[in-house]
Design the sequence.
């Protein structure tokens, strides 16, 4: 994990530095500036490659040992099933693992940290509402975490979506290059020649008062309130012969476009279109579970003011030096 997260930190830093250098110097400066990336990559490969080779040998279809059910094993199986020898090369598999860690580590950490700061600077009533939601959802399965429990956490979903709306990492999203040799002509007549880079102002769109009411105010339940209202309207319309719970569930599903994973022109912290983040469904489940666990297992001191986010180049990141005070519920206080 240290090597993967070290690589994930070193890579954007190296790329940012390289972009400041004149292009003719990049062949000379590139290898020097990216030395930390090579170092982390080598250390990572040293740990992972023997495990890939071991698994390829042990799980060759002849063993009775239970296969691990994890991302590494899926990659190994996918490589074997493809029938393409290169897909099973350990160096290809470990490069994929590293790239996936790169896509997943900071994005998820930042999303959760921003949400915690937002919630702690809001009101205790919000924290209580989230705790109640977790308790009620877990009561349906005698305390066992299941997919259905996570789906019931619509207030958590909303709080995370609201933080990603206000504090998305991206100031500019959907960065794309025009590939059509004839270029593209935008609806307003602007011609974009082949090779031009384009993007949209994600952060400005997410905070646009024409799209969101009072966008500067953090309302953790902005989206869940709309989903609940839709469900209530549906219950009221249900004839006595039908099940109101089912009607409410159907209405909530119809409002799934307000859940965190649902991206569109007015909400795209995960990108949009064909290249939209494929990891967002995993991230949403992971973040909801971590948030629910943190709030139900720890008392966290509320904050008087929201520590402001920081900007590194065009990326908005959580305040690196801000601290919170936590106490295991019924335990010791730590900062
Ligand atoms: C809160 C967490 C996350 C955020 C905010 C996030 C955000 C993004 C964004 C903005 C993109 C670019 C999309 C575009 O250009 O339209 C992206 C792409 C991608 N993400 Fe995520 N991501 C998150 C978590 C994850 C996780 C957990 C994984 C993997 C387990 C993942 C895997 C990927 C991959 C593979 C791509 C490239 C997709 C492609 O180019 O086709 N992401 N993500």
Sequence:
């Amino acid at each position: 994990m240290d090597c993967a997260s070290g690589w994930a930190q070193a890579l954007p830093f190296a790329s940012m530095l390289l972009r400041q250098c004149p292009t003719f110097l990049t062949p000379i400066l590139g290898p020097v500036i990216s030395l930390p990336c090579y170092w982390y990559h080598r250390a990572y490969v040293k740990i992972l490659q023997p495990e890939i080779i071991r698994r390829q040998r042990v799980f060759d279809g002849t063993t009775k040992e239970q296969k691990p059910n994890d991302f590494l094993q899926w990659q190994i199986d996918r490589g074997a099933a493809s029938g393409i020898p290169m897909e099973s090369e350990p160096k290809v598999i470990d490069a994929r693992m590293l790239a996936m860690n790169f896509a997943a580590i900071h994005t998820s950490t930042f999303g959760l940290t921003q949400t915690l700061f937002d919630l702690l600077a809001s009101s205790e009533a919000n924290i209580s509402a989230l705790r109640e939601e977790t308790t009620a959802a877990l009561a349906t399965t005698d305390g066992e975490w299941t997919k259905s429990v996570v789906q019931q956490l619509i207030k958590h979903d909303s709080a995370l979506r609201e933080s990603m709306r206000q504090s998305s990492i991206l100031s500019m999203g959907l960065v794309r290059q025009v590939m059509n040799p004839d270029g593209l002509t935008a609806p307003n007549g602007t011609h974009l020649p082949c090779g031009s880079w384009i993007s949209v102002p994600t952060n400005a769109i997410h905070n646009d008062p024409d799209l969101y009411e009072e966008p500067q105010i953090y309302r953790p339940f902005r989206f869940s309130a709309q989903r609940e209202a839709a469900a209530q309207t549906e219950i009221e319309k249900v004839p006595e012969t039908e099940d109101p719970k089912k009607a409410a569930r159907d209405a909530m599903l119809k409002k799934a476009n307000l859940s965190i994973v649902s991206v569109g022109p007015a909400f795209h912290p995960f990108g949009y279109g064909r290249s939209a983040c494929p990891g967002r469904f995993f991230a949403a489940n992971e973040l909801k579970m971590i948030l629910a666990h943190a709030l139900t297992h720890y008392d966290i001191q509320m904050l008087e003011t929201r520590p402001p986010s920081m900007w590194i180049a065009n990326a908005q990141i959580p305040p690196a030096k801000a601290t919170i005070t936590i106490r295991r519920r019924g335990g010791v206080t730590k900062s």
